[in-house]
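Re: that chain you flagged

S.,

Sorry for the slow reply, it's been a week of failed gels. I finally had a moment to sit down with the sequence you sent. For the record, here it is as I used it:
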Amino acid sequence: MGLMPCAYRQLLGIDCPFCGAQRSALLLLQGRFTESFRLFPALVPIAVTPLFARCKKVLPILLGIDAAIVVGSWLLRMAGV
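Prediction finished late last night. Pasting the structure tokens below so you have them in one place:
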């Protein structure tokens, strides 16, 4: 199965905040949890968030956490950490 190329990366030459999400999902489905987490740490929190869609008090907090993980891991990746 071929993965979709990242248009952001093709246009700008740098990783987008979601680069690695497809590969991370495939690794997670294969049971390779550690590798999946290292590649895209926000995958599991983003996948769990919709389960709380009806919890009006919890959902904004989870969305903020998801955004912080995505942006934080992206900045670390861009810094070469």
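What I noticed first: The CA atoms of residues 57 and 63 lie 11 Å apart.

Talk soon,
D.
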